[in-house]
């Protein structure tokens, strides 16, 4: 069974056993289970359902495998002939999750 879920401000098409890298879940620890209730569409073949905007009673459960940080992004600002240069960096906080089950009611 496949499902399209919305989590952390992004949409993902998932099936059981998929591993995703998403923005960090702030209150979840490694090894904990997360329930994603914002399911946009789910099912296969004749049983495929689309929500308006979400499917009521649909639930996707995922397990947090680890927390990590993304690669460094360098932000460099400069104004020519003014002597203005600013260099900053950013690393995104990420969570690695594994989809355990997709259920429809």
Total number of helices: 0
The structural class is mainly beta
Rg, Cα atoms, Å = 19 Å
Question: For the terminal residues, how far apart are their CA atoms?
Answer: 14 Å
Strand content: over 45%
State the share of residues found in helices, binned by percent.
Answer: under 10%
Order of helices and strands: EEEEEEEEEE
Number of strands: 10
What is the overall silhouette? Answer: elongated
Spatial ordering of strands, largest sheet: 2-1-5-6
Low-confidence stretches: none
Main beta-sheet annotation: 4 strands, antiparallel
- Average per-residue pLDDT, rounded, comes to 95
Task: Describe this structure as you would to a colleague.
- This protein has 105 residues and is an all-beta fold.
- It is built from no helices and 10 strands.
- It has strands at residues 2-7, 10-15, 19-23, 33-36, 39-43, 49-50, 59-69, 73-79, 84-90, 93-103.
- The strands form 3 sheets. The protein has a 4-stranded antiparallel sheet, with no helix packed on it.
- Strand 8 (73-79) and strand 9 form a beta hairpin.
- The mean pLDDT is 95.
């Amino acid at each position: 069974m496949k499902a399209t879920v919305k989590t952390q401000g992004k949409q993902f098409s998932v099936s059981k056993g998929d591993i995703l890298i998403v923005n960090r879940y702030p209150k979840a620890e490694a090894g904990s289970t997360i329930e994603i209730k914002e399911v946009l569409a789910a099912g296969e073949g004749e049983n495929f359902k689309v929500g308006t905007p979400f499917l009521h009673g649909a639930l996707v459960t995922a397990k947090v495998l680890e927390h990590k940080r993304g690669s460094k992004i360098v932000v460099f600002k400069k104004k020519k002939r003014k002597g203005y240069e600013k260099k900053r960096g950013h690393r995104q906080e990420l969570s690695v999750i594994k989809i355990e089950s997709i259920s429809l009611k």
